[in-house]
Amino acid sequence: MNFNLELTGRRALVTGGTKGVGAAVVESLRNAGVTIVATARSVPEIAPEGVTYFAADLTTADGCRAVADAVLDRLGGIDIVVNVLGGSSAPAGGIGANRLAAVCHCPASGGLTQ
């Protein structure tokens, strides 16, 4: 079986990417050639090549906005979103459809496409 998903050169946002499942996702994507912005409330001091950690509280609209801005600044957009963030206290809508659309380069009413 071949599980090569041809991810080399893609850009990803991974929430909750510093511990447990999130850290495993970051490592798997990095090994597949993906450039990653990973978020968490606290981040490691040293990041592996291809990974940028960004500290943010995604339970707030300001935190979501800061992550969207960081992703645009560092990656110019994203191809992959992996939400590993725990809990359910994030504000409804979080980042907002229009802002997410700007980051993903897709229409706010459509799906996330390349």
Features:
alpha/beta; four-stranded parallel beta sheet; 3 helices; Rossmann fold; 114 residues; globular
Write the layout of secondary structure elements.
Layout: E1 11-15, H1 20-31, E2 35-40, E3 51-55, H2 61-75, E4 80-83, H3 97-104
Parallel strand pairs: 1-2, 1-4, 2-3
Q: What is the CATH-assigned architecture?
A: 3-Layer(aba) Sandwich
Specify the biggest β-sheet.
4 strands, parallel
At the fourth level of CATH, the homologous superfamily is: NAD(P)-binding Rossmann-like Domain
For the record, what CATH class applies?
Answer: Alpha Beta
User: Would you identify the regions where 5 or more consecutive residues have pLDDT less than 50?
Assistant: 109-114
Q: How much is the average pLDDT?
A: 80
Q: Give the number of domains.
A: 1
Strand content is 15-25%
Number of helices: 3
Determine the N-to-C terminus distance.
Answer: 26 Å
Q: Quick one: overall form? A: globular
Strand line-up of the largest beta sheet: 3-2-1-4
- Look up the CATH topology: Rossmann fold
Helix/strand class: alpha/beta
Q: What is the C-alpha radius of gyration, as a whole number of Å?
A: 14 Å
Q: Could you spell the SSE succession in H and E letters?
A: EHEEHEH
